[in-house]
UniProtKB/TrEMBL annotation:
Organism, as annotated: Alligator sinensis
Stated name of the protein: Deoxyribonuclease gamma-like
Limits of the Endonuclease/exonuclease/phosphatase domain: 33-168
Key words of the record: Disulfide bond, Endonuclease, Hydrolase, Nuclease
Lineage: Eukaryota, Metazoa, Chordata, Craniata, Vertebrata
Family: Belongs to the DNase I family.
PROSITE patterns cross-referenced by the UniProt entry: DNASE_I_1
GO BP term, example: DNA catabolic process
GO-annotated cellular components: nucleus
Gene from which the chain derives: LOC102377540
Amino acid sequence: MRQQHLLEENKPYIYRQVYGRGEGKGTNDILVISRCDIMLVMEIKDTQNKTCPFLMEKLNSLSKGTEKEFKYVISERLGRKTYKEQYAFIYRPKLVSVKQTYQYPDRQPGDEDAFSREPFVVWFQAPRSAVTDFVIIPQHTTPETAVREIDELYDVYLAVKQKWKSKPLSPIDRSIYIFT
């Protein structure tokens, strides 16, 4: 995968599959995340909401006394029936800020419940980077539903444009990133 260097200090956007290994493991994952300005974590299945606070504790202990602390924004629990997941973005607030979030409702007439897990859309601002405003739309899908869900992401894109129409959309329109 080709990496793009957009943020301060030429830090790459990193796509990495991080598997749930419990609290005692994952030291390498903490080190990988600590090198990022923004990290998307998908498939959080933690019903007790301990994962992100645990990550924040570990990450911020590495950067104690520096300006490199982390924060996170997390989606509601998403999914059908009893199987639920969450998306979370971990970010450095000194470099990147969250302008707005939007949980796509997936209630489009005639196309209800198109997503197994609805996209959680986040609008970021990074004033010291080449791209100062951008939106990330993550989508965790399965092979069985991938074609339909990826097709439906266009509707999400249109909904985001409509929802944030009063905002300066010209840079955002060119800076919407979709991860599946």
